[in-house]
Amino acid sequence: MPFVNKRALYSTSRALHIYISTALFFLLILFCVSGIVLNHVDWLKNDKNNGQITAAIPAELLVKAQTELNTLPTIYPQIEAYLAKQYGLNKVKSIEWEKQDSLVMLDYPLPAGYAYAEFDFISGELLLDYQTGGFLSVIGDLHKGRYSGEVWSWVIDISAVLMILFAITGMIILFQNRKKRLAGIWITALGVATPIVIYLFWVPQIKGVS
């Protein structure tokens, strides 16, 4: 077993504990507040806004579509590119095509909302229905990583790893302090046992099944 330099271990742990806490200051508060919000979803009843935009389909896209009315799916990439540039919409969930009416409909899920775009290539009109959430609704979905994109997913994963390191370095620092070590261990044990006991005795669960 390799020799562990306790002084270096404690010094490194203390530095990591301090700087991880500062790096995570905002996210820790954000996830704590959003966790409370998710525990009280009734707070979000009136935290939605609906809107609608009507606009003319760009001439270039309209001409291209009208020359290919029977093969509209071939211009899906151009339609998506236009919505991404004009309205910042990315990561379409689904695209539907009503051939008879020359309609193309795109569904975009968003944190705490959605955007639904309908291109009418006969009338040349774009109808964009959308719903946006207020601050509480948005942070609730960011907490869950719901429709928040790949980059935010990495934010959640990296934050979780750093929080684990934060907890571990805190325990290492505790063991350095002999006077407070025993009390800290008892408080840690209480912190582990309390949620387990609450889960076993007060959280609804099914029993008697294999």
Automatic annotation (TrEMBL):
Keyword Transmembrane: yes
Family annotation (InterPro entries): PepSY_TM-like_2
Transmembrane domains' residue ranges: 16-38, 151-175, 182-202
Coiled coil: none
Record keywords: Membrane, Transmembrane, Transmembrane helix
PANTHER family registered for this protein in UniProt: INNER MEMBRANE PROTEIN WITH PEPSY TM HELIX (PTHR40115:SF1)
Name of this chain's protein: Peptidase
Organism of origin: Pseudoalteromonas haloplanktis
Biological classification of the source: Bacteria, Pseudomonadati, Pseudomonadota, Gammaproteobacteria, Alteromonadales
